[in-house]
Amino acid sequence: MDTKAAFELSGLDAIGQARLVASGDVTATELLDAALTRLDSARGLNAVIHDLFDRGRRQAAELDASGRLRGGASGPLAGVPYLLKDLGASVGGAPESMGSRALRSRIAPQNAWIVDRYLSAGLVVFGKTNTPEWGNHCTTEPSLFGPTVNPWSPDVTPGGSSGGSAAAVAAGVVPAASGGDGTGSIRVPASCCGLVGLKPRRARTSFAPAGHLLEGLAVEHALTRTVRDSAALLDAVTGPDPGDPYSAAPPPMPFLQAIAQQPAPQRIVISTGSPFPGPATDPEIVAAVEAAGRLLADLGHRVEPGAPTVDPDAVADAIAVLHNVSNAQLHALATDHLGRPPAEDEFEASTWVMVREGFTTTGVQYAGAIETVHAETRRFVASMAAHDVLLAPTLLTPPPPYATLDQPRGTTRAFFDVEFATTGWTALANVTGWAAISLPLGMTSAGPPIGVQLMAPEETVLLQLAAQLEEAAPWAGRRPAGWVAAAAR
């Protein structure tokens, strides 16, 4: 495949690329070579920090030789090149540094369950993407690998913690890449980079061989450019692993099938403010959310102003405690890896604050944080009883500049106060376990995109609404200045 064809493929989503392979127009190896050509042109983004080219070539060659890809019988994603976030999506025998200097030489001992599901779906894994240390930040600028560049603007963050994946997808290197979300880490980069970012409901995907992360706040999925790719990827990884501590009820039908159906009229509450104290939402963000509300009303849904209720102080305190304990676990992992306790300068400054507070967090405090999460979930759900869906900003501001969302603030709680003044509602989906999706429905006057967020107890209605909005207000034709095909000309 020549270079021109490799860049032309950047405009196809994952399902579109897989159909080319299934029809015999290209091979999985040719798709991979095209993705490698695009990645080479986009190295300046610093999105991919571990190359797994040889394993990708072996996998693509095996798929081509097996005949699995002939006749379109092996699924909607088979043969598509895919990138994995360097946190959570472990590949046995491959580097997994998790953005941490203390883990820079770590090799993952085994595949994560979700990676095995990706491989079973025929996705061709060929690299790991940049992430902040331990996923602590809603920006991607770890000192170990340096910042990832937002393809829309080099002056603003691509978001985090799945920022490397978001930048690679937004630039057209790959049509989709994996992500994880603990307080907004899929949806924030989706908003910053103009992508579809779905956080599934709690336990929709498994963290096996681990149990769960952040007491159920975290869940894994992907960054995509189209709704159908997000649905197909979720179909590929839906379901529990035997022995999981809990699991989500199976969806009524495959998600890719569900988005072909119109949802019943939904009762949608729209909130342009924030559940946390802080500055007012940027007017351009407010306008984008209100425009989405009008569009949903035109599509037959009932949209009215309001907001669910939570105790913002209690929520922020609980999230801080859970992160402190999680970072103490990181310290233990690094100690085991290094054979000695890591030094302070082997962690980010903000991580070190969380580690130190984690050392002094008591069992009573930890149990209290879990109880608070459950209590605030009940409060939130009770206040949503008259509505099916929450419509809100993904970010309360345009994408912020670098060195904004990763700085130490003296305490973990103060760190999250700054984050939540920018991210607003995102953490509430993690606390409640609800599904949430960010859609690129607006643009700032300065150029970067605006994400608008929908939240509901389950994914099906969100994906159906997203498909309606995608058809009514298409975003697929928008291209950032850092789009790989533009750079190639």
TrEMBL record:
InterPro entries: Amidase (IPR000120), Amidase_dom (IPR023631), AS_sf (IPR036928). It comes from the Bacteria. It is an enzyme of class 3 (hydrolase). Its EC number is 3.5.1.4. Keywords: Hydrolase. PANTHER family: GLUTAMYL-TRNA(GLN) AMIDOTRANSFERASE SUBUNIT A, MITOCHONDRIAL, TRANSAMIDASE. Belongs to the amidase family. This is amidase.
